[in-house]
Design goal:
heterodimer; A: alpha/beta; B: 11 helices
């Protein structure tokens, strides 16, 4: 009796498994495609993640209003990649989220991740699944570097497409700025122990040494530690011209606050990891004043061409956008463009086909300029913009010098 | 800055840090002294205290961007905020004891300790639900007054922390050593059954111990908030682990030992960061702990636990 019931149910399960497990299975029959979004929407970086998430929301609505792309409309599936235990992004959670995207046959591609630490965890998973992701802000160069191919894309094909340039430009260009414009002769470098923080602090340090800036030392902050007075007192004793911080918000706000107390006059340099509109408020207005931040995309917020978009965003969401809200917005359009090119050829719209089409992306006239990728998935535009906190707000200063 | 001035500055920083750990280690060691329970919920009580204090300050009209205040308004505000926060965390401690730990009393093994870990997570998640996961700026109402010693400096916040912290500790010592209530606490710690027979209301004494320990953690919360100018739901863990180490280092259950242990940990943290690198802080601290436990399992100043005949 029990056996008789079991045989057909096992057969049914197997059949279902086969159907679901077929690469790109039922995709072609559906009219809706999903875009996976895994962002740290809670935790220390919640505000910048929120700005970017809203960029995606806006793009998905706009694409759908125009009737979609290649006969499909889109839907964003959003997962949080921050965990309470980490208090910020958690690479293990990001990996779990991407495995869920891969398990869902309707997900054709993803926009994300925000953090390079997440990127290092998910890139090999994407490579195995032959699915692409378009990152609006992850800048660690190793992930797309062919040198580390075996580690981050064992199947060889580019799966990690970036709408921002990498820290191979972001870190060094800040060093150039410090040397040429700020006349910095000596610097102390700290990072927050994350993949992004360590990487950008390394690339800044290398360039600083080439330029002849004296690097007085290098240390690592525990982002969950409250007390940075010890390290700051030590740095103050060395009397540097500048302090460079590689890392994201959780350590940054405490570092800024305590650095203001201990060494208010030193130049403080950061990266896009501190470019978060809530940074001045969280660190304290006086403490945040004067901090420099680089940004791995051109400035768009002061660009007259972008004002219409910005006003629409502001009135829709009642908040200010960031540059990476625009790179996120463009991420959706890049995917929609790839889907419509695949559909035009008459081939089924599968993940693999979309990934392949993304390689040949050539979008002109977006708010960030032309978008096209090299063989590794890196964007061809290498502009790094510079910001400084003035009167409690990040103000655009100019393009960071490339030499 | 000369090396001497830098080291002097690190000693000042380390002492301030140590006093903060001491306020936390005290509540921990008191509870252990009286019922031999390692209360991991204590650090979540401390963390919750920072948010309670922050909310009280916000309700009084102070926000992250408020200017410092001076004179009588500062004193009145501080006394008011400290009293309310300590009361709130004290009551929280009492609730934890009454609801979660009293039913476990008499259960042998690690079950009560595991319960406190559970309570710690419940509190963390409650704070996450109510106040969210962002780092919150703490109103800096205490003026940033500084005094120079050569190129090193002592801040008003550090002095306030030292004076108020030491006053609380002396007060606690007086209470435990010189009052009838303290005598009852010590009697309960030595032998709860005998104390009960002599007419001590043991349940009430244990509740009071939780109240006092948690109220001290509440004071520690405010010192933390004013000193570092922020709070977040995750601060209990790192700070708490160091305070726990202080208590063990000083000999668990030993009140003066906990204070000395905390000051040692504070100094090790600041001088270790200066002489080596801050990334090694935890390695140094826990190496010391392991060394002490191997060669002197009772801690530096001796465990004070109930003496079983």
């Amino acid at each position: 009796m029990r056996l008789r019931l079991m045989v057909p149910s096992v057969a049914l399960l197997l059949a279902l498994g086969l159907f679901l497990g077929w690469p790109g299975g039922g995709v072609a029959q559906q009219k809706v495609l999903k875009i996976g979004v895994s962002f740290p929407i809670t935790g220390a970086d919640a505000d910048s993640a929120d700005a970017m998430l809203k960029g995606i929301q806006m793009a998905v609505e706009e694409v759908n209003q125009k009737g979609g792309a290649g006969g499909y409309t889109f839907e964003a599936v959003v997962f949080d990649s921050a965990t309470p235990a980490a208090g910020q992004y958690d690479p293990a959670q990001a990996a779990t989220n991407y495995k869920k995207f891969i398990a869902d046959n309707l997900v054709v591609a993803a926009v994300g991740p925000i953090m390079s630490g997440e990127g290092k965890a998910i890139s090999p998973i994407l490579s195995e699944a032959d699915m692409a992701t378009v990152t609006p802000s992850s800048t660690n160069p190793d992930i797309t570097d062919p040198k580390f191919k075996d580690q981050y894309r064992p199947k060889g094909k580019a799966v990690y497409f970036r709408n921002v340039t990498t820290d191979a430009y972001q870190g060094p260009n800040m060093a150039n700025h410090a040397f040429h414009k700020l006349k910095v002769k000596s610097v102390y470098v700290v990072d927050d122990g994350g993949a992004f923080g360590v990487g950008i602090a390394d690339s800044f340090t290398r360039r600083a040494k080439e330029l002849g800036i004296k690097v007085l030392g290098r240390d690592q902050l525990n982002p969950k530690e409250a007390d940075y007075k010890t390290i700051l007192t030590k740095v103050k004793g060395m009397n540097p011209d500048a302090l460079y911080y590689g890392g994201v918000q959780q350590a940054a706000v405490k570092l800024a606050r305590q650095a203001y107390e201990i060494m208010p006059k030193v130049h403080k340099l950061g990266s896009d990891g501190i470019y978060d509109l809530s940074f001045p408020e969280q660190a304290g207005k006086e403490a945040a004043e004067g901090w420099w931040a680089s940004n791995a995309s051109p400035d768009m917020l002061d660009d007259p061409k972008a004002q219409e978009w910005i006003n629409k965003y502001k009135s829709k969401f009642k908040r200010d956008p960031t540059n990476y809200a625009i790179t996120s917005y463009n991420g959706v359009f890049v995917i929609a463009d790839a889907v419509s090119r695949v559909a035009k050829t008459g081939k089924p719209v599968t993940r693999a086909a979309v990934r392949e089409a993304l390689e040949k992306t050539d979008l002109k006239g977006t708010l960030q300029g032309p978008i096209s990728y090299d063989a590794n998935g890196d964007i061809k535009t290498k502009t790094v913009a510079l910001y400084q906190v003035k009167d409690g707000k990040f103000k655009y200063v100019g393009v960071a010098p490339e030499k | 800055m000369t090396l001497f001035e830098i080291l002097l500055q690190q000693v000042v920083n380390g002492l301030a840090l140590g006093l903060m750990y001491a306020l936390l280690a005290l509540g921990f060691t008191m509870v252990y002294g009286i019922i031999e329970l390692i209360n991991f919920a204590h650090f979540s009580v401390f963390m919750t205290g920072t948010f309670v204090g922050l909310t009280i300050l916000n309700l009084m009209g102070f926000t992250g961007s408020s200017k410092a205040i001076t004179g009588l308004p500062l004193v009145v505000t501080l006394v008011f905020v400290f009293a309310l926060t300590m009361l709130a965390t004290g009551v929280l401690g009492v609730l934890i004891e009454r609801l979660c730990l009293r039913p476990m009393r008499g259960v042998s093994g690690t079950a009560p300790m595991i319960t406190t870990i559970g309570v710690a997570f419940i509190l963390i998640n409650l704070v996450l639900m109510i106040w969210g996961p962002q780092t919150q700026p703490f109103p800096e109402i205490i003026p940033d007054q500084r005094w120079a010693i050569g190129q090193a400096e002592v801040t008003f916040r550090q002095v306030l922390l030292a004076v108020a912290g030491l006053a609380l500790m002396v007060g606690l010592n007086y209470l435990v050593q010189r009052t009838a209530l303290g005598k009852a606490m010590r009697a309960t710690a030595q032998d709860a059954d005998a104390a009960q027979m002599m007419g001590v209301d043991v349940d009430r004494i244990i509740l009071l111990t939780f109240f006092l320990g948690s109220a001290l953690a509440g004071a520690g919360s405010l010192f933390f908030g004013f000193y570092y100018g922020f709070t977040g739901f995750y601060i209990g863990y790192t700070t708490g682990l160091r305070a726990f180490t202080s208590a063990v280092l000083g000999g668990i259950g030993n009140i003066p030992g906990a204070v000395l242990g905390a000051i040692i940990i504070g100094l090790v943290q600041s001088l270790g960061g200066q002489l080596l690198e801050v990334r090694w802080t935890d390695v140094i601290i826990f190496s010391i702990l392991i060394t002490v436990l191997v060669f002197r399992p009772t801690g530096l100043f001796g465990i004070q636990t109930p003496q079983k005949a």
